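REQUEST
  id: r-88c1
  op: predict_structure
  target: Alpha-galactosidase
  payload:
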Amino acid sequence: MSDDDQTIRWGHGALELEIALQEDGRPRLSRIGSPGETGQCPQPGAPLPLVEVTVTGHGRFWSGRNLIDTAVGARLRHRSHRSAREGDWHVLTLDLHEPETGLTAEVVYRSPDGLPVLRSEVVLRNEGGAILNLESVGSLVAGCLTSGDPADLDAADLLWAENDWLAECRWQRSPLRVTSPALNRRFHFNSAKSPRVVAGEGTWSSLGHLPMGGLTDRRSGRSWVWQIEHNGGGWRWESGERDNTAYAALFGPTDQDHGWRHPLAPGAEFRTVPVALAFAAQGGPDAAFATLTRYRRAIRRPHADHARLPVIFNDYMNCLMGDPTTAALLPLVDAAAEAGAEYFVIDAGWYAEEQKSWWDTVGAWEPSVSRFPGERGIHEVLDRIRERHLVPGIWLEPEAVGVNSPMAKTLPEEAFFRRDGQRVVEAAGRYQLDLRHPAARAHLDRVVDRLVGEWGVGYLKLDHNTNHGSGTSNHPEETPAAGQLEHNRAHLDWLDGILDRHPDLVIENCASGGMRMDYALLSRLQLQSTSDQQDLLLYPPIAAAAPTAVTPEQGAVWAYPLPEDSLDEVAFTMATALLGRIHLSGELAELGSEATALVHEAVTVYKSVRADLPQAVPAWPLGLPAWDAPWVALALHTADVTYLTVWRRPGAENTATLPLPHLLGTDLRPELLYPSASQAVPTWHPDSAELTLSLPAAPSAVLLRLDHHNLH
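RESPONSE
  id: r-88c1
  status: 200
  body:
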């Protein structure tokens, strides 16, 4: 770090930022990017403060959809700053003070050495004598994402990802000035009233949209991608134009979007949710997503699963669909073992008596007697799983309690989500536990410790199938969104406790597929369900885009062949999972011999490539896939090898050209890994760095390997 009287410079070899201190001590982030770049912001300095805070009675200078230009943020003054090194992380902490209210803000910037990523969070403290009612707090405010040249704004595109059940990770791209058109503001305040705003909602973090966004220059490829690391729907980002530059501001819950307010008493503090901003000087969004992938690996809790990547069979999708029994499971265990699976997960339904509705009775998590008859009950199945040298797993929806569950009567009222003093009921008969309450947490700890410690379960699939709206409040002064935030934080603490007690346990994160896809959870949990999509032809754009939201080694992708599928369709569904975490399912025991051979071949190929996946970063040779794209492609590459999955869907021409610019000038021979019987014809053109691929059938899909050791 270097300082002069007016500028704080901080960073490392991959990222540098400058903070300009104005004459009155107001700090402004004036540059962020590669070391040695010239200043981005128009003089005399960056327009936005380091922290934007809305406090009741202290609003904004400029009304609109924006939550920037706050009165308190503009009055924050620099008091001190310090830098430190914490292992592989560079840390800059700035202490700011607002004299009128007595509010202080501790801004903590972190960046992993060698990665152009800025992680930010803010701690507010009340050093005044009166309660301050917070309405919004920015975790990161970054102006100057483009230069002061209006042409840069004309070339800027915004990125955001729509996310719905069965249709996850659908990235969209639009010119920034579709939202913020070029206006002559010579005579007016130089800020739009309607920036692009993307906000989460409810109790799912990725309902409607991923908690992510981005900005890219379509001429130079200079790109930013950001993520909000929060495991609930209370988050927001906005991006638009301010003083002829683009800005992004990232928030947790806000009053404007979620009805969130937080009374900050004298002497108290409030911490924002962490956020991250990844940068690529060139290479477009692919390069920024590659950087974000490496960052996600740096913030994760260490776990052996991230390197081992065992093959998982789960009995749900296109298989038992929540109707497991001993008779149905035993042949599936044998078929999964013969296919090469290493874990076997019993999904939903194991706790439900066959003749009764289970939806509104869940919560005790005891095994069904009618589904698992006999002296051993469910342990007959668990024993068979272990006999076939598989690790047993089981599905659990820990936060749910049915209205007719015995737990609904034995747990105290305060252990549930409540609003206006009444329990919140959702989805025809479900309560949600509030994990701030010790009785709720103790109940779930007993359940998990029984399943893992007594039953010998080594894998938990944790689901969450209900959206309980705005949140929960324990008392009239607490808004539901504030209660939701504190529950989310208690949820993370509970998960940390599980893994502290059971460090070898593998936990999959699921919420109706991908409705809770965020790096608050995925910094702790080992896998992420990517979708509940059952149509093999609709899964490719989800599977291909999933590495934008989750590292490849954490992205669980279904491979679910059915007896009625053609051999091309069997190969298609198996290929879809080979660059993620393969989740075998489907009616394996009923497949014909040729289809079974294709399944076994796919698992063998997966085991041959999986050691490379934890080091690989993603790219999309045909661009981030549109939902109805006829051709879809995903590349994962390391320093030595590129893996490429390509899907041809019905209606597509039989040939596609895929640019792979990182291999320009490299002589190589594409190797067909799967399926070996494919009639695919790949042709590599080193001078143009393009792969031409012909697939004669539709649907069809292939996995290719491109070895480029000679680059070194």
